[in-house]
Amino acid sequence: MEKEQLSYEEAIRRASDAIQRFPLIDVHGVPLMSTIAENWKSVSEFCPDPSDLLISTYPKAGTTWTQEIVDLLLHNGDAEVCKRAPTAVRIPFLEICSPPPIPSGLDLLEQMKPPRVIKTHLPIQLVPKGFWENKCKVIYMARNAKDNLVSYFHFDRMNLTQPEPGPWDGYIHKFMQGRLGWGSWYDHVKGYWKERKERNILYILYEDMKENPFREIKRIMHYLDLSVSEDVIKRIVQLASFQVMKDNPMANYSNIPKPVFDQSISAFMRKGEVGDWVNHFTSAQSQMFDEDYANQMKDVDIPFRFSI
């Protein structure tokens, strides 16, 4: 089959002319790209192996960072092994579906033998039930709402498969109302937080990882029942640093052609900072957002920080 013979990069290049800003369609109350919604039955019925690991995040909350750290931990900090393929091939994106001949996340997973590491942006209520029935391990990375919003805005500008973000001021309201791909940030972070103990989810915060990556990588290591030396953890801290990953073609999505990710608009790996939101919000926007945030987060005590 030609589909199997094509490299991932070549498949994307060949499908570039079919790429468009796909509309969002509600799936059980959550807006998802139309290509995902149209294939929802297959996604929802995916049954993982008990040895599979799920990495879940709201979009632009440190997903690629977490993927790289986990891959490095699983390969004892071997940088070359972790350059064996682009991130999207090493750790398939469960629900993503694109125009042929680009393989879907399910296509890529079919070609891999367990144990597999799998990425998703699905809120907890849409995660295929097999992950819970098979007691798969799940790592959830969450990022403070303001920085997450800024990063998602710039991503939607350059990702030409997602709806046009429109002006910044309007985008803030879309975020607050959950009218973006994968829905409400508030529902997303709260859903995994409330279920973290019952479902044995490792819940990590972006700001904690920025502040002390050694400590947080060690938490991931213990959760995965791995044992690597402190020297290896130090090496992983360096290899998974923002600048090293930004310069790593197997992690920076530079293999995705311009008709899909136009990195001349905004880099996929843009800043990776905590507190960049202050460069985007006006004082009035910040006050409005803070009031809404306090109301939407009043039922949880997730220790988010907006600066470190």
Beta strand count: 6
Strand order, sheet with most strands: 4-3-5-6
The run of helices and strands is HHEEHHEHHHEHEHHHEHHHHH
CATH topology: Rossmann fold
* Main structural class: alpha/beta
Subcellular location: Cytoplasm
Keywords: Catecholamine metabolism, Cytoplasm, Transferase
EC number: 2.8.2.-
Organism: Sinocyclocheilus grahami (Dianchi golden-line fish)
Nutshell version of this structure?
The chain is α/β, with parallel strands linked by helices and 308 residues long. Helix content is 42%, strand content 9%. It has a single domain, classed as P-loop containing nucleotide triphosphate hydrolases (Rossmann fold).
List the SSEs and their pairings.
Elements: H1 2-5, H2 8-15, E1 24-27, E2 30-33, H3 34-38, H4 40-44, E3 53-57, H5 63-74, H6 87-90, H7 105-110, E4 117-120, H8 130-133, E5 137-142, H9 145-158, H10 168-177, H11 185-195, E6 201-205, H12 206-211, H13 213-223, H14 230-239, H15 242-246, H16 283-296
Helix pairs in contact: 13-14
Structural key phrases:
16 helices; two-stranded antiparallel ribbon; 42% helix; cytoplasm; Rossmann fold; EC 2.8.2.-; globular; 308 residues; alpha/beta; 4-stranded parallel beta sheet
